[in-house]
Amino acid sequence: MPSGLDVIFLGTGGSLPTRERGLPSVAVRRNGELVLFDCGEGTQRQMMHAGLGFNRPTSIFISHLHGDHLLGLPGLLQTMSSLVRDKPLELYGPKGLSSFLNALRRTLGFQSAFPLRMTELSPGASVKKSGYQIRAILAKHDITCLAYGLFEDVRPGHFHPNVARRLGLPEGPLWKDLQYGKTVSWDGRKIRPEEVMGPSRAGLKLVYAIDTRPADSVKRLAQGCDLLIQGVLPLHRDGGSRCGQGFQVQEAGSGTYQRCYKGRQDSPERSA
Ligand SMILES: [Zn+2]
Prior knowledge:
Layout: E1 6-11, E2 25-30, E3 33-37, H1 43-50, E4 58-61, H2 67-70, H3 73-82, E5 89-93, H4 97-108, E6 116-120, E7 126-129, E8 132-138, E9 146-152, H5 161-166, H6 173-179, E10 184-186, E11 189-191, E12 205-212, H7 216-222, E13 227-232, E14 248-253, E15 256-261, E16 269-271
The protein binds zinc ion.
Residues 64, 66, 141, 211, 243 line the site of zinc ion.
C-alpha cells in the first residue's frame, strides 16, 4: 500500500552542469515503481548513486526538447540494455521526441534489449497509471514545454490495529486484505474494511514545472499541490529566455506553501 512518494533530486542544475549539480532529472519512487521527470546528462550515474536500480517499472516524462533535459537518455537507455533490463520502459514527451529517439537508433545502431514504448503527448493529455495519473499541460518557454502533475488516486484511510485486535482478528494476511479494501471472513462473520479503517484520504499531488516563465496554466496545475518542483527562467536583456538556472521546491502544509528553499547540491531526498 502506498505510504508516500520518495522524491530524489538527481540533477538540479540548468543549462550547464556544475561541480555540485547535474543536469535536470527528478525521480519519484512510488510502490516500487519509478517515474523520472527529465533526463539530463549523467542521469544514469546519479541513479546508481541513489541506488534506484535499472530494472524497476519505469516511466520517463521529458518536459521539452532542449538538450540539457534529454541528452541523458542515450546513456541511460544504453546502460539499461547493457544491464539486461527486461521490464518495459515507457517514455513520454512533447512532439518531436520520437524523431530524436529514431535518430538515436539510426545513428548509434542502438536497439534496446527491453520493450521501449514511446508516446508523444499534447498539452492537456493525461496518462493513467496504477494508483495515479500524470497530467501534462503547456508551460511557457521558447519551445513547446510540458509541465507535469502527478496525481495519486484517493488513498485508503488509516488502519486501526487496536480495532482489528478487539474484533479478534489475528495479525497477518487478513489485516493486509482489509488494508487493500477486501472484506474478510473470520470466526463465522464477515468484517468489512470500513470497520477497521479510517476515512479515505486525498492522494498526494506533485507538480514538476521546469524552464517556465510565470504561466496561469502552471499556477492552475499547482493549485493545492503537496510538492511543487519548479525551475524559473531568467529573462535576458534581449527579452528572450534561456534554460533555467536551477530548481526551487515548495512544499505544502495544510494547503498553503510554508517553505521554499533552494538545494545547494544534488541528491537531497525528500518525501511528500
Ligand atoms: Zn529549456
